[in-house]
Specification:
Length: 174
Amino acid sequence: FAATIADGLRAQGLAPAGAAVDAFATPRRHAVRVADVRERAEDRPVEAKGQLTLLAEPSGKWMLSSLDARAAGLAFRGQIGSSSGPAEGLGFDLSVDHLDLDRSAALAAGGAPASQPQAGALPRAKGKLRLEQVSGRGLDLKNAVLDLTLGEKSLSAVLESAEAWGGKLSGSLE
């Protein structure tokens, strides 16, 4: 039990390889003390391949096309760039191979430590997110297509289509 906890902390970059590990147990309780655990893991680079196209406009518009990236265990493909609409922000058309909601919830539960500054307003963005598979939390969706709009403090998602439970789904969430 103690080795599993310590190995997990090391794998996430939260404990050094030589950290001391102490195990404690009573008939109904188990505890582990791992020395030198960091409050926050170091940032990990995002691996990305693609063609960066900078548009020669005074407005500074840009686009990353033919994107092939991996971040937080997800594989992204598609394009992202400055919005072509009247509102400034990001435009995107991205595909994700597999989104595991149980794993994502576990990552989010770690959250930022209280000593970390909280993020400000969200960036404005609008585009399509195509999810080949979404699993976890009792869901098993395939070929989901979402129209996402991200405002300063809001997220709107319209489900264009998805396959689930032998049928098709569509709808919206705000």
